[in-house]
Amino acid sequence: MLLRILAMRVRENELIEKIAAALGRRPRVSGELRLGIGDDAALFRPRAGREIILTCDWFLEGTHFFREKHPPDSVGWKCLARALSDIAAMGATPRCFLLSLALPASHTGRWLSEFLRGLSRASRKFACVLAGGDTTQGRGILIHIAAIGDAPTGRAVRRSGARPGDFVYVSGRLGEAELGLQILRGNRGFLNSKNPLLKKHLYPEPRLALGEWLAKKRLASAMMDLSDGLSSDLPRLCATNGVGALLESARIPQTRHSDVARKQGLDSLCLALHGGDDYELLFTVPPPKVRALPRTIQGVILTSIGKITRESKLALRNEDGREQALAARGWDPFR
Fold first, then answer.
1. Cα distance between residue 207 and residue 39, in whole Å
2. What is the H or E stretch that residue 117 is in?
């Protein structure tokens, strides 16, 4: 038994070495991260005048990705990107993250190498370094990310703050990630991960620059990210503020690949309303500040899709002027 335990320890040490080598054995020590990989815990100290932003996110095989369909490097990229979307929604800057990883022994070779390659690319892209974490063996692949960021004290954008009359905005186009997922599910085995129809599902990009810009300019009265779908996330923002919203269906930015959606038996508006995994920003803007918003920021479109209402109900107005209740039909892991 002792030899077995020692062998397991050696294998785990090798696993940790592999992760450390892929993501930087000695992460850059800065004004925030004082001590990273290699000790019992990391040391983090925010710069003067800034406060810490903390968030965490599960990424589970069979729930969020499929081993037989999702390329390992996309799993590595996406597990960090989706966690950092919460940082973006606060208007904050990502600094470092913790990785907890459980996987079968059969996947500690090539699968892990490709996973770490994707994770390393995301870490560099979003300037967010690995500070530590934990590893264990399991039957399935379980990934947990804890992300740490910071923002100027008192300047983080919260979900609260929306008022009746505020305009409701979204970034980007909605439903493209869900379209990619449906295409992936409808095909056997792996598809070409460079297929543009799959990009937003496999390699989402949190709107970090946009979130920071909105916070800096103090334009957003409330903000959150769109991870579960507009019809499920907007009610959460409204409930926090005790308000409702009236959306205009004609203004909701839909996928540019509506012809592909139709061939899949999918409606572009339904994808935009109920599709998850977009990781765009949903935010409200008081009327006097709307003029300060450009149409795009770094190539990302900003679209006003409706208004916050005093009455606490959510409605969608169709192009013919008729209104209907907006039901929450987005992603729900317990449904």
1. 32
2. helix 110-125
One domain for residues 285 and 175: yes
Predicted model pTM:
0.91
Per-residue confidence (pLDDT) for residue 16, from 0 to 100: 82
Tens-digit pLDDT profile for residues 110-154: 999 999 999 999 999 999 999 988 898 889 999 999 999 999 999
Residue 93 resides in a domain: yes
137 in the same domain as 190: no
43 and 139 share a domain? yes
Residues 197 and 147 in one domain: no
Q: Report how far apart, in Å, the C-alpha atoms of 224 and of each of 161, 237, 281, 301 are.
A: 12, 7, 6, 17
Whether residues 315 and 215 share a domain: the answer is yes
d(CA 14, CA 8): 10
Q: Please indicate, yes or no, if residue 162 is contained in any of the structural domains.
A: no
The conformation of residue 275, written as its DSSP 8-state character, comes to -
How confident is the model over 258-285, as pLDDT tens digits?
Answer: 999 998 899 999 999 999 999 999 999 9
Task: Check whether residue 146 and residue 175 sit in a common domain.
Answer: no
Does residue 73 register a pLDDT over 90?
Answer: yes
Q: What is the distance between the alpha carbons of residues 144 and 315, in angstroms, rounded to a whole number?
A: 35
Measured between alpha carbons, how far is residue 247 from residues 219, 244, 296 in Å?
20, 10, 20
Asked if residue 177 and residue 312 are part of one domain, the reply reads yes
Mean pLDDT of the chain: 91
Domain that holds residue 145: 2-152
| Helix (H) or strand (E) run with residue 124 in it | helix 110-125
Q: Note the residue count of the chain.
A: 335
Using DSSP's 3-state secondary structure scheme, residue 52 falls into strand
Structural domains counted in the chain: 2
CB-CB contact of 273 with 254 (8 Å)? no
Whether residue 321 is found in the same domain as residue 174? yes
| H or E element at residue 152 | strand 142-152
Backbone angles phi, psi at 311, to 5 degrees: -75, 130
